[in-house]
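Lab meeting prep.
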Amino acid sequence: MKEVAMYLRNAWYVAAWSDEVDDRPVGRVILGEPVVFYRNMERSIVALEDACSHRKLPLSMGVVAGNHLRCGYHGLEFGSDGACRHAPGLSRTPPNACVKSYPVEERYGLIWIWMGPADLANADTIIPIAHYDDPVWGINRGPAMDVNCSYLYMTDNLLDPSHVTYVHKTSLGNVATADVPVKMSVLENGVLASRWMLDCELAPFFIPYVGFTGRADRLQHYEVRYPSHAIIRDIIAPANSGAPQGNLHPSVFLMDSYNFVTPVTENTCRYFWFQVRNFRPDCTVTSRALTNDFIAAFNEDLVVLAAVDRGMANKRTPITDIETDAAPLRFRRVLKKMIEAEQASQAILA
């Protein structure tokens, strides 16, 4: 698969969990750009270029001063719009002293950042999360995970149900997942790879959580939306109870896993995730167990993907694409066209 060493900028990316930014500035690299986040006196999030306009010391090495961010070198203070608001010891504030500011939103316990032109930012386009505030659905979340691979290998993986048989053979997958073909569907805002596995043994991961015994019908729904947000949906119902036809058994297991991949550099990214579920909504023991089980499963992915990134960077022979690559390849082709169109538009405006 040919790499796309570019990013879609006119998009919302997850920068951090909300509770990662408190009284001190927090620096992040997003799409190769250093960005600093802090909370002002109203506890709203501010995002600025992480480099003072004077000598480019990272502003994340400074301190929050009321509504401003104070540089730790000479004390220049920058406001939420990026303009220098105070320059101690100087006869006047340098009129050209400013840093870039970024649109940000807090939603679903996450801090979202818009990396393109600010006038194009529309918070209504942030992905909606079904059941997030539904009292009959539970939720669990894990820590952000740093991944040593291109974000495109992450989107490949999130569009590939077939890998669970081999990467997650003692957790999310089992022999029942080996030979069932994957169907690709093209969506308005992404790509879907899915398959129903009928009358099969439960994968080990789900046994403690499913509310029935015996064999099952299971849907794997792997959907990735541009630029790099995924919804992994599992429906698990008693075998032959009609789930593929839309007839959901009272004991059906429903879980949506939301996955947000934020490019950091060409070969690194950051992975944010949480799950919503239709069972045991108020059980903290279940939430904790699910989080730990997902961390273990995702760590299996991260080991493989880091090795894939290294292998692809040092390949000596041609690459073989296989049938299950159809969805990832389609996603990459469309994303590449979106990036090229965006860059052409920006070149015209420049």
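Slide two material, second protein:
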Amino acid sequence: MVSVLVVNDQSLQRLALRMLLTAEPGLTVVGEAADGDEAIRASAALRPDVVLMDSGLSGADALDTIRRIARPAARTRTPAPAPAPAPAPGFSGEAAAASRVLMLTAAEREADAWAALRAGAGGFLLNDADPAELTAAIRVVAAGDAVITPGLTRALIDAVRQQHTVRPLPRASGPGALTGRERDVLIAVAAGWTNAEIAQWLSIAPTTVKTHVSNVLTKIGARARVQAVTFAYESGLIRPAA
């Protein structure tokens, strides 16, 4: 069951989204928030799998809200308490605490995609998407994949092209550090393919694809697939068509 926190400053829109998602098998709405501050508190308390957030959110700065939801360590600057007992093997406390953020955005706000992705957003969907697109996108983001509409992909590419000062990447984290198979996987990820599609293309198991994706993220210093997409364009591994 995928748990969702709905964040929108319009009460009628929150109600409509709740009704839509509650009626969908496999999805459950665990809470609502009307602004960024409420969203941060609710996310920390409820630990939803996905935070469905409107890009025109009021209250706390939208980018700060994304950062503090997607990266729980950024929620507070208070010194950390004494270390807790080590987690069981295979369990990551930070990963368990982090929710994935899916943004609903208006077409005229597509240019904001770059900054939001940098902040940790896991995907974007135009707010005129149909119900089937929305529920599918929630499931994809919950599974750890990225959702970016074609128009937003173009805005992202344009933003990468316009970067005048891109911080040089350490040699160890450049494309040369990847194996041939890892490069293939990264190219497919940057093209928007899911793990299942990559597995079918490369004739390998989906679990093997997950391992390759994890290795790629580690080598390039990325936190999520969307950052891997920007890396693929910044490094020249993929060159968008004119």
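Talking points for slide two:
The CA atoms of residues 86 and 92 lie 10 Å apart.
The first strand starts at residue 2 and ends at 7.
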